[in-house]
Amino acid sequence: MSSIVSKQPQLMNRPEPLLSFSDYAEDFKARLEIHNYEVKKLTEDATKLYKLVTQKLSIITDKSYFDFIGM
């Protein structure tokens, strides 16, 4: 009969943190600035698109209207 030996799992020690809290805070601030810049640019592009679409739609609807009434 063979004996079964149970081994206890060896626990690892907790590693020391590589980054400090201030490093995380600086990283968060940098990412927030990038996010805000990109949202600002997105808003500018959406505004330009809205103006372009409303201008072109106005031209199309005016032309259709005047064609419809025979002018």
What does this protein structure show overall?
The chain has 71 residues and is an all-alpha fold. It has one domain. Helices cover 69% and strands 0% of the residues. The chain is built from one helix and no strands. The protein has one helix at 21-69. It is elongated and about 100 Å long.
Would you kindly provide a brief summary of this structure?
By secondary structure, this protein is mainly alpha-helical.
Order of helices and strands: H
How many separate domains?
1
Major sheet: size, sense and barrel closure?
Answer: none
Task: State mean pLDDT (0 to 100 scale).
Answer: 88
| Spatial shape | elongated
Structural class: mainly alpha
Total DSSP E strands: 0
Helix content: 55-70%
Spatial separation of the terminal alpha carbons: 107 Å
Low-confidence stretches: none
Query: Which strand-content bin applies to the residues?
Result: under 5%
Number of helices: 1
**Alpha carbon gyration radius:** 33 Å
Describe the secondary structure blueprint for this structure:
Layout (H helix, E strand, L loop, with lengths): L20 H49 L2
Task: List the main descriptive attributes of the protein structure presented here.
mainly alpha, 69% helix
